[in-house]
Amino acid sequence: MALQLFKIASTTVESPVTNIEFTSIPSGYTDLILHYSLRGTGTNSNEIRITYNGVTSGYSNIELYGSGSSVGSISAGTAYFYAGESPAVNDTANTFGSGTMYIPNYTSSNQKSVSSEAVEENNSSTNNTLYLNAGLCTNTGAITSIKIQPDGSFTWVANSTATLYGIL
Amino acid sequence: MGIQSLKTGSRSRSVMSGNTLIYPGDFESIATVTVGSGGTSSVEFTSIPGTYSHLQIRAICKNNNTSTGDDSITIQFNSDTGTTYSGHALYGSGSAVSAFGSADMVNGYAGLCNRSNASFASMFTGNVIDILDYANTNKYKTVRSLGGADQNGSGGIIFNSGNWRSTSAVTSIKLVQNFVQYSTFALYGIRG
Q1: Which uninterrupted H or E stretch holds B54?
Q2: Contact across the interface for B10 and A96, Cβ inside 8 Å
Q3: Distance, in angstroms, between B101 CA and closest chain A CA?
Q4: What value does the mean pLDDT of chain A take?
Q5: pLDDT at B43 exceeding the cut of 70
Q6: What domains sit in chain B, N to C, each tagged with a CATH number?
Q7: Does A2 score more than 70 pLDDT?
Q8: Is A68 on the interface with B (CB under 8 A)?
Q9: Mutate: best of B23, B55, B133, B146, partner A, most A CBs <10 A
């Protein structure tokens, strides 16, 4: 059968929230895809931090990024999957980022690997960043919930959206 | 008759009445364009319905420039040719990586197009272009794309972003390059 995509759940933020969470994710798919269009209340940008099943340890990340004319690659152990950054207060008004995380084999009893691409758009030749990320979490539980939150005590603004899909 | 699994949430058509079992899914073809002989200077999708949450374009293309190398594909929405776009890129050539961006442009960037140098025969590039929340009238539209132009020893890979500073729903998308025959562009709607 051809690869097919099914919406599991979606959220549109109506007033600022500290996180977006999808719970009770069904186990009947092969992989998950998460689309997110976010804007935060930070100053210059907001990190997009993704955790699953309430797990807050055992994550590692590798990133390739381009920011203005600068490029680089970093790696870090963290308490979350790092899924790029979103525009924030100092970025062009009404502008939201765009990102997709691919979560293969999410019900397996293996450690979980993800990949993501995200852009923090801004009408500027220098003040914007593109992100390609890979992540691994040592937790082996089947993924049943996913939480998307900004860094610090910031929030996602109204009209931020996230949609979770299952792939068969 | 449509049915939905309580366990998985997946939707299908009932076979009780003898229907063939199908899974309609939430990723649907809206339109496909294949460039004919003689080529074209642009490909445009018009009358895009506002009934989906997101759009995705999958493009396989090549242009008529006979030099070596590759070129950016540019993108415009709703026939807007004003300086309402920004565009940014992360580019790898096989030996080096670079980034660039521009503000207040008359178009955004959306992938790469192989040239038609004699040594690139039958080599087309692949691009996937995502436009989330394309019909949301409360936000400007951000486009994100990933494209690769491999030329068997040369070429490049590009990750693009762009922004169209308009809250209008996207109803048409124009991709600009001098596309040659057999370049193919498929527009999909993703329900959400």
Answers
A1: strand B54-61
A2: no
A3: 5
A4: 96
A5: yes
A6: 26-190 (2.60.120)
A7: no
A8: yes
A9: B133
Cα separations in angstroms, B64 against B42, B71, B112, B141:
12, 10, 13, 30
pLDDT of residue B1: 46
B105-B34-B155 Cα angle (round to 5): 60
Q: Which of A86, A106, A125 to mutate to test the interface with B (most CBs of B within 10 A)?
A: A125
Tokens standing for residue A87: 């525009």
| Nearest chain A Cα distance for residue B47, angstroms | 23
Using a CB-CB cut-off of 8 Å, the residues of chain B touching A22 are none
Q: How far apart (Å, rounded) are the C-alpha atoms in residues A60 and A72? A: 17
Closest partner residue to A5 (CB to CB) among B25, B104, B131 is B25
Average pLDDT of the segment spanning B117-146: 97
A63 C-beta neighbours (distance < 10 Å), count: 18
ipTM for the predicted complex: 0.95
**Which chain B residues have a beta carbon less than 8 Å from that of A166?**
8-10
- Structural tokens at position A139: 């937790």
By C-alpha distance, which of A24, A19, A146 is closest to A81? A146
Confidence (pLDDT) at B17 = 60
Question: What structural domains and CATH numbers belong to chain A?
Answer: 5-167 (2.60.120)
| Euclidean distance between CA atoms A60 and A113, whole angstroms | 10
* Mean pLDDT for the stretch of residues A13-27: 98
CA atoms within 13 A on the CB side of B142: 33
